[in-house]
Amino acid sequence: MIHYLFRHNKDYSRFNIIKHLLKDVTCKNDIFILLPFSKNQFLKHFLKRDRIVNDFFISNYDTYVYDRRKIGKYNPRAWWKYVQDWVNFRFSKYLLSDTQAHFEYWQSLFGPFKGHHFVLPVLADTSIYYPLTTPLDHERKHILFYGSFIPLHGIDVILKAFSLLEHEGVVFRATIIGNGQTYPKMKALFDSLQLQNVDMKGEFIPEEALANEIRRSDIVLGIFGNSVKAHSVVPNKAYQALACQKALITMKSATLNEFFGENDMLTCNNTPEALAEAIRTLISNDVLLKAYQTNGYRTFQKLTEQTKQRFQTFIEGIDRTLSHSRSIDTRIK
């Protein structure tokens, strides 16, 4: 039987996607899926670690020290987060990551992993993120960015790109949804640029409303940050945009090649000039815009189905290993 370990059973998309992928799997043995954001649960259930599939997903140490830069690496809080991550990473027998690149980065932080590793891409909850049934017909193309305003996102690049487009007289409308760590700084930049075609109110909205905003947009923006993590992940928003059959623009990254081809989304360097050029290209070319929407959605669907089959096979293999071990133990006794 599959059990789930978590600190708080919140409505995280990663939780729901994993549960959905495994809902048809029946195991003879008890297998525990350690959901992300629950590092202490691994310590609590340490003696069960040979039965735990640890969805490492993010490194708390990397997030606080390098990605968001909230604490220095010599801060005692950083030491504790490192120990938590190190124990979770080095002592897990089965580990999930969202990309191979992210996994390799964790190895550079915590040392080589000697267990069994499975890449489980982020994907999207298709009960929430799905395409419109009727096409949009906007006089001005709608561009959407949403996020929690962390350095990973590179929102300064996005705002400066919008400013360049406005100064060139490009016709568009943009919405930026969200709030978080960098919002005060980005709001000051937004105000200084005096953007006329961009709406940014610093609001969070429910996930269902967010999905509707995606469906009402023509183009969705991904991430444009400079951190190691930014180059090691494919973020939620990328999959959610593709699931809604939207054209995605995000920064160039070798990590994208793990799952997608050059025809699935438009990529560019993480500079305002390069992003402005990419947006301008899609605004002016409806045929290309439609091609990215179609190709990205088709690849997302294929990736989702392949991942489901591979993940179920991975879990079933663990179940067989446990049954084999029990059989050996019984014969020895």
Features:
five-stranded parallel sheet, Rossmann fold, 333 residues, six-stranded parallel sheet, alpha/beta, 11 strands, globular, 2 domains
Percent of sequence in beta strands: 5-15%
Task: Report mean pLDDT, rounded to a whole number.
Answer: 93
What's the architecture of the largest domain, going by CATH? 3-Layer(aba) Sandwich
Tell me the count of domains. Answer: 2
Stated plainly, the CATH topology of the largest domain is called Rossmann fold
Number of helices, counting only DSSP H or I runs of 4 residues or more: 11
Order of helices and strands: EHEHEHHEHEEHEHEHEHEEHH
Spatial order of the strands forming the largest sheet = 8-7-6-9-10-11
Q: Structural class, from helix and strand content? A: alpha/beta
Shape: globular
What's the total count of β strands? 11
Give me the Rg, rounded.
Answer: 21 Å
Tell me the span between the first and last alpha carbons: 25 Å
Description of the molecule:
- The chain has 333 residues and is of the alpha/beta class.
- The chain has two domains: 2-120, no CATH class; 142-296, Rossmann fold.
- Helix content is 45%, strand content 13%.
- The chain has a six-stranded parallel beta sheet with strand order 8-7-6-9-10-11, sandwiched between helices.
- Helix 6 runs parallel beside helix 7 and helix 6 (155-168) packs across helix 10 (272-283).
- The chain starts with a strand and ends with a helix.
List the topology elements.
Layout: E1 2-5, H1 13-21, E2 31-34, H2 39-44, E3 52-55, H3 60-67, H4 76-91, E4 94-97, H5 100-110, E5 116-119, E6 142-146, H6 155-168, E7 173-177, H7 183-193, E8 198-200, H8 207-215, E9 219-221, H9 236-243, E10 247-251, E11 266-268, H10 272-283, H11 286-332
Parallel strand pairs: 1-2, 2-3, 3-4, 4-5, 6-7, 6-9, 7-8, 9-10, 10-11
Helix pairs in contact: 3-4, 6-7, 6-10
